[in-house]
UniProtKB/TrEMBL annotation:
CDD domains hit by this protein: GT28_MurG
Keyword Methyltransferase: no
GO molecular function, one term: UDP-N-acetyl-D-glucosamine:N-acetylmuramoyl-L-alanyl-D-glutamyl-meso-2,6-diaminopimelyl-D-alanyl-D-alanine-diphosphoundecaprenol 4-beta-N-acetylglucosaminlytransferase activity
Lineage: Bacteria, Candidatus Nomuraibacteriota
Organism whose genome encodes this protein: Candidatus Nomurabacteria bacterium CG1_02_47_685
Domain Glycosyl transferase family 28 C-terminal: residue ranges: 192-359
Its biological purpose: Cell wall formation. Catalyzes the transfer of a GlcNAc subunit on undecaprenyl-pyrophosphoryl-MurNAc-pentapeptide (lipid intermediate I) to form undecaprenyl-pyrophosphoryl-MurNAc-(pentapeptide)GlcNAc (lipid intermediate II).
Family the UniProt entry places it in: Belongs to the glycosyltransferase 28 family. MurG subfamily.
Descriptive protein name: UDP-N-acetylglucosamine--N-acetylmuramyl-(pentapeptide) pyrophosphoryl-undecaprenol N-acetylglucosamine transferase
Amino acid sequence: MKVLFTGGGSGGHFYPIIAIVQKLNILLDREGLKDVRLYYMSDTPYDESLVTKNKLEFIKVNTGKMRQYFSVKNIIDVFKTPIAATRAVFKLFILYPDVVIGKGGYASFPALFAARLLHIPVIIHESDSVPGRVNKWAGKFAKQVAISYPYAAQFFPKKRTAVTGNPIREEVTVPMRGGALEMLGLEQGVPVVLVLGGSQGAQIINDAVIGALPFLLDRYQIIHQVGMRNIKSIENVLGIVLKDNTHAKRYKPLAFLSDDQMRAASGVADLVVSRAGSTIFEIALWGIPAIIIPITDSNGDHQIKNAYSYTRAGCAEVIEEKNLSPYLLATEIKRIMEDGAKMQEMREAAGRFANPGAAEKIAQQIMNILFEHSGKKR
């Protein structure tokens, strides 16, 4: 038997797939199913080590991306997409998996198109409150649709849609307590703010944080995930911004947080500043108060809707990009951190919002299809 996963474009698509695969491997071992092969089809493996570690076989299919703004690349990609879809049809016809699991994103279109053409069962998962174009289309023929936000249910067939929450990898679900400060080089007894700009980093957040440092470092320590492309420019600016600042070492810029660093950071953080992607569900699982800064021009304003859904639950405050400034960010951080009752309310609300077990629920549905196809009884 064979299972094919597809998705791509960002960590928000890739990491939930890995979370599902982890749970599926556990269930397969538990049921004694040793002959099931797992595949991942996308334009890039994103993290090759995780693909290999989780027993996935990578199938590369380059596809086009239709951007919601003018770009010469759109003209080129008009031709790339049908070519990719045709290649996917041939690959899936030869492979013929028992089920295809789509996580959304432009890179999932070829495999989902092929699955529909070949009448292969499809399960999709949507992380956002407003689905992207590929998932919205795939939801029309998918056997099952799993969603993270109840708001997204309106875009899919009611009878085939279930609110599962967002799949989260085991490696980052449990915050590290002992030794976390030492791992990150932080001081004892000084509150910690964790800033997450998404898998690519976020320049607008980086600029606001750098500008806010002189107002914050006398009271707080800042762990800041700036993105691989931005770390050099951040380091160059620090010599000017933090010149003669006696607390300069309290600022910890990192290009990317490894799993261990993320567990350590979530274990010591008192407040998280983040985008409004799938990271929201990790923050909720950690039970940490948050300030959410959604991307303004995301598809269907899904990040803004994600952010306000989370805020209405009492877990966070929102700063929209049009209002973001170093002064406002510093002021909001201080306001929340200095209000103990507010912090506790946010922690409790995050605990209620968290919906753990999404990966296992989806993996269980995959198992149901595999058993149905094999004719075995459970």
